């Protein structure tokens, strides 16, 4: 069992956890991830390491409650435990002094872009960050990203905060202004990452994305996380999760991620139904005392 040292919501359905795991905290590097199981009978899910504190022995992950397992995890509080956390897994981000870099985070993808932005800054790059969210209430890690940025921008789809528009709009503006951009990192929903790739492709700007295919064991054995990159099969858990965005077959990635969609919906419906019944039972017990 692994203890949750800290748990707090950053936005609606988005929660930060600090989990006690000294070996992972000591070894992890930007871009790597862990695989966790919330309960003994639960599924294994990959989550990128947002940060770590080797002194405290904690690993930070940021979770958006979308499916059954992530919603179940988001019910946990400080002092609770999870069954397993395994890592660090995957290849670390390739960090060097590129020059001017742009780190783009879409939604909870900002939590994944953050550690790489930190590493890029330490390597001596001029770091520009663009954080995108649907609305003001969904913006996360604003202060943290500003602290490691030479220039920081926020975009919201509805214009409720920062720049009205998408992250690609701001990126395109920087390019149109004639800014020298040497490296772009984009992490978030698949359509967003693909859109960023299409913005940078005509200009030959080296662009990297962190892929999120279905994953089970994290060692390359199951083959569930295979992706097509440069017309070759790669495994996100051992060959990635970061790949050259201009070589990724995004259509294949979308199709593979939809394979278990029906089963995921049924699992979520069953979980939410049980939660509703448990709340009703608790309410009845409270009124009968």
Number of separate strands: 16
Number of helix segments?
Answer: 9
The gross shape turns out to be globular
CATH-assigned homologous superfamily of one domain: Nucleotide-binding domain of ferredoxin-NADP reductase (FNR) module
Largest sheet: 7 strands, antiparallel
Q: What ranges have pLDDT less than 50 throughout 5 or more consecutive residues?
A: none
Q: CATH fold name of one domain, please? A: Rossmann fold
Average pLDDT reading: 89
What is the CATH first-level class name of one domain?
Alpha Beta
CATH architecture of one domain: 3-Layer(aba) Sandwich
SSE pattern: EEHEEEHEEEHEHEEHEHEEEHEHH
Summarize this structure as a short list of keywords or feature phrases.
289 residues; Rossmann fold; 9 helices; Elongation Factor Tu (Ef-tu), domain 3; globular; seven-stranded antiparallel β-sheet; 32% helix; alpha/beta
What are the SSEs and their pairings?
Blueprint: E1 2-11, E2 14-20, H1 22-27, E3 33-37, E4 45-53, E5 58-64, H2 68-73, E6 81-82, E7 84-89, E8 100-106, H3 110-122, E9 126-133, H4 142-147, E10 151-156, E11 163-164, H5 167-176, E12 183-187, H6 190-200, E13 207-210, E14 226-229, E15 232-235, H7 236-239, E16 242-244, H8 250-257, H9 261-288
Parallel strand pairs: 8-9, 8-12, 9-10, 10-11, 12-13
Antiparallel strand pairs: 1-2, 1-6, 2-5, 3-4, 3-7, 4-5, 13-16, 14-15
What is this structure, in a nutshell?
It contains nine helices and 16 strands. By secondary structure, it is α/β, with parallel strands linked by helices. Helix 5 packs parallel to helix 6.
Question: Would you write up a description of this structure?
Answer:
The protein has nine helices and 16 strands. With 289 residues, the chain is of the alpha/beta class. Among the domains are: 2-89, Elongation Factor Tu (Ef-tu), domain 3 (Beta Barrel); 100-210, Nucleotide-binding domain of ferredoxin-NADP reductase (FNR) module (Rossmann fold), CATH 3.40.50.80. The chain has a seven-stranded antiparallel β-sheet. A seven-stranded mixed β-sheet has the order 11-10-9-8-12-13-16, with helices on both faces. Helix 5 (167-176) packs parallel to helix 6 (190-200). The chain is globular and about 70 Å long. The protein starts with a strand and ends with a helix.
